Amino acid sequence: MSEFVVVIPARYASTRLPGKPLRLIGGRSMLEHVWNRARESGAAEVVIATDDERIADVAGTFGASVCMTRDTHRSGTDRIAEVADLLDWPDDKIVVNLQGDEPAMPPALLGQCAALLDDASADIGTLASGVQTEDDFMNPNVVKVVCDRSGYALYFSRAPIPYPRNESGGRRARDAALHHHGIYAYRCGVLRAIVAADPAPAEMAEQLEQLRALHLGMRIRVARPTVRPGRGVDTAQDLEAVARDLGA
């Protein structure tokens, strides 16, 4: 497997959970939990990317490397691309994007995601598991992905996809969809191409940054994780559930 680095984009503002990266889980910030998962992954380097001094200050207390970025970024991908430029990373360097609200991400999955780019035909690597419940299938906070037979993404959506045309199609729809996890691997050259392009209409409608890559014709390789990740944090209820899951 090729060497990889991890960047954790973290912003203070969050519509559903303000100050999300600094919310406490067992007496430590969620950001520190995410950083520890990244450090345990075998990454050559881990960088927290933020535009907020409050996040930078907290990250400094546990010894993280921080890269201050502009406050105008619309997505984590844009923020990571700035880090790649600021640190002068070459186009072939592999970067794993671990979102700052994934404190229960098993460290081994970062390497699994990066290894998907050993296939030169893949522009981006990511992970997704089977949809577990009907509630998850309908939940807009659970992003769904549908893939082709080779494991490349056809489309991502917050909506239930594929749409069950009738009652008998409900089970088939859930079987066809996968629950997308908040982790990506890119080469820096791909990152730069994505941020140089205008936002795609579907991306703006769904508020899903990976749809820009599909709009550009990039190939996103999707694999099932070797172990299912814990939940990400979007709401206060998620935070409480993650704390229970982590025994914090």
Describe the structure.
This protein is α/β, with parallel strands linked by helices and 248 residues long. The chain contains ten helices and eleven strands. The strands form two sheets. Strands 1, 4, 5, 6, 7, 8, 9, 10 and 11 form a nine-stranded mixed β-sheet that branches. A two-stranded antiparallel ribbon has the order 2-3. The chain is globular, with a radius of gyration of 17 Å. The model has no long low-confidence stretch (mean pLDDT 91).
Helix percent band: 25-40%
Number of helices: 10
Multimeric organization: single chain
- Structural class by sheet pairing and helices: alpha/beta
CATH level 4 superfamily: Spore Coat Polysaccharide Biosynthesis Protein SpsA, Chain A
* Terminal-residue CA separation: 33 Å
Shape: globular
> How would you spell out the order of helices and strands?
EEEHEHEHEHEHEEHEHHHEH
The CATH architecture name reads Alpha-Beta Complex
What can be said about the biggest beta sheet?
Answer: 9 strands, mixed
Return the domain count.
Answer: 1
CATH class: Alpha Beta
* Mean of residue pLDDT values: 91
Poorly predicted spans: none
Number of strands: 11
CATH topology: Spore Coat Polysaccharide Biosynthesis Protein SpsA, Chain A
